[in-house]
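Table S2 (text version). Query chain:
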Amino acid sequence: MDFKFSREDEAFRQEFRQWLETNLPRDWRDDGELHDPDTKDEFERRRSWHRKLYDGGWMCIHWPTEYGGRGATLIQQFIYQQELDRVKAPPTVNFQGIARVGPTLMQWGTPEQKKRYIPKIPPAEEIWCQGLSEPNHGSDLAAVETRAVDNGDHFVVNGSKVWTSNAHHADFSTLLCRTDPSLPKHKGLSYLLVDMRSPGITVRPLVQITGERAFNQVFYEDVQVPKANLVGQKNQGWMVAITNMMFERTIHGGRTDMMVEIRQLADLAKQVERNGRPAWEDEYVRQRVVRFACEAEGLKYTSLRQLTRQLKGLPPGPEGSIMKLGTSDLNLRLQMFAMELLGAYGQFEYQAPGAIDHGKWSHRMLAARRGTIAAGTNEIQHNIIGERVLGLPKG
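Corresponding structure-token output:
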């Protein structure tokens, strides 16, 4: 494999790197401090950074130029993310809109829908969430119970969606709902665009073990949605949802480089003591950290294999499931080992007085479990790899 980038791609890297050096917020500190996205101040700070990227022509670079993007190649998208990771840039907002809603509307939306909604996604003028998962149905997305009853020029929606990220910030939501209960579960579904300010919508936060409230449950009670907000054909929404999920799984394939966390773990091992001396001097500790580093390198090259398949125009392979499974599992084990190093100090909460590294390790450990659940549980990924890649019989 040739890991060299072309002259044009290196020029792209230098252009973006120089822009970041000039425009990266100076008050953003990479000191291990966590920034709670649930506060309005933090959300608006991220929106401001998002808007700066947009104004500089560095938002939605993978979108076609006719929709406000740069038409960036896959290699350029890879470099773009590398550079953001390198400087540990602040998070942006409107991830759902940029990664999923916009591309889905480009493929399925009417001309009126494209004109109305797509232009306001890149500048974060309108924030999006997605209403897919429902209570009591686990990973069976097609078991939709939320109903949308045809009532002339609009649908009347009743039901509930769960694990809805950023619903408390969102202006609009996509909604997969059942419009014909007499049809099989993958039929009779429709895909709607819903104004989150509509009467009858209630957003209830789901407080995580970390104390954060990024997830929500959303309730719909006699919510009226105009027929003009139907994406694709009525009762054919499953195809639209599949398009959305393809974009989701591409994005959630896994991080390409976890060495930042592993270097921080090594630094932690040099701070804390084990048997009266720095833990880093213990061969067992060094071997564990090196093992994590080897796994991270393996995952990085697996990600590059996935990129190579895309560059060759091949259909998606097993790399997406492997990356999602591998990165979330490695992150969980890494955080648990940090707790082992901290010993009694691992009981300190985030920002507690006396906590090592501001208590970020206990917060990360608690948060790591959600990565094994989001975007298809690790159990589901094991099944996909076992049955579809290795050809094992169903359990």
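Notes on Table S2: Residues 198 and 223 are 7 Å apart (CA to CA). Residues 283-311 form the longest helix (29 residues).
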